[in-house]
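Crash report, auto-generated. Payload:
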Amino acid sequence: MSVRVLPVGDDALLVELASGAEAEALHAELLRRRAAGLLSAREIVPAARTVLLDGLTDPGRVASELAAADVPPAPPRADAAVEIPIRYDGPDLAEVAALWGVPEEEAARIHAAAEFRVAFCGFAPGFGYLTGLPPRYDVPRRATPRTAVPAGSVALAGPYTGVYPRASPGGWQLIGSTEAVLWDHTRVPAALLSPGTRVRFVPVGPAGRAGSAGSTGRMGTS
Amino acid sequence: MSDRAVSVVRAGALTTVQDRGRPGHAHLGVPRSGALDAPAAALVNRLVGNRPDAAVLETTLTGCALRPRSDVTVAVGGAPCRVTVDGGPVAWGAPVRVPAGALLDIGPAVSGVRTYVALAGGVIVEPVLGSRSTDLLSGLGPAPLTDGTVLPLGPERVPHARVDVAPQPAPPAELVLRVTLGPRDDWFTQEALRVFASRTFLVSSASNRIGLRTEGPALERARDGELASEGMVLGAVQVPPAGRPVVFLADHPTTGGYPVIGVVRTGDLAAAAQAAPGTPVRFVAVRRR
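Recovered output after restart:
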């Protein structure tokens, strides 16, 4: 594992890795070290190919430890996968199916057959970047973002699948909708998905365009 | 104590509830939020005898007006302004006793941007993830105040801090921000790095709690392409494609895809919170501690 450690301000480090899988592995290892009392960090933020450590008391020491670190692959998670019910009724499903060169029903089947993991979160509270589709199914963002994407929309961009926790602008390809509540600050934990969580999408009912994705999954405050 | 509350008579342009924010949840996409001028919020809390993590009000340029339902001690700090109780002037930057039913008016900022109002007992709206702060990026916490909002207050602690008046820094006529370079300074040309650390920018009127935006010379990139999303810190100076630096403040996104040329020292962010649009800004490169 090649690790590049970049200082960020006075008390943070950005650790750059060669791949998303390596970033996931380092993130798991850093959580383990923090839980064991070997690392004091206020924030450990995984992203596409990096892990940010913020609020470090001794960034210099942590940087030299990381440069010499031997990080095992992320251990398999013992907890069950979160199942997200989905209707494959998104307005971009046809376009995604065309990009994949398959009929819409087959696109839905491919997506529902994959096992996903939350690589990282960002964009909005509870929004996870899920990996798990083979690279040949990467899709571009839409050329023109939508000004309003309904809450509960299931969408694709690049190698990622995501679910919009609340209505917001967005440029991802909308393939379906869910009634799962991705974020509820009165719930513990508030976020349905956090980095490392395993996820499966479970089709419910027949595919159709009559879903009401905007009416559920809204955040408690707005 | 059930009537320990204040009514908002005039909410002003943007008044929010703020405390020390909700750090520790960035991995879920939750911004830290919290008072932008943290030292000012801490000082007004101290003046009324509150704990440092009590929630205060943060106004923006135009102040606000409140009517307490019971006698309450208040203190006003941050951006200097005229403060009146039922029309009569009272002290700014000192504890003031406001009788039940009187009108406390926090006038427009004479200089600076954000005035802080501490009420003894603190504002005790329902916390979200351990904080009562309004986060304007993600919508967490209470909505910005509107006329007629009623805010519950906690019990007053006694005795109050024995402080009559406290000195506070004046809002900056010129904002000087100390910056450590990186982590993505290698995305910029040598000329861009020279321009960044030597030229004067201006605070843009598009600035908000998410970021201090600037106008001025564009910083040219040394490389094309997109940066994969990566974690962002408070004070990060992100440079979008147009080339004008943006300094990330408390409501900043937790990840971002534009390169960060440098990071502003945390101690300089209170001044950034008080720099009005049009204020000259200089970035001064300093060595990492």
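Post-recovery validation: Chain A is about 20% helix and 25% strand.
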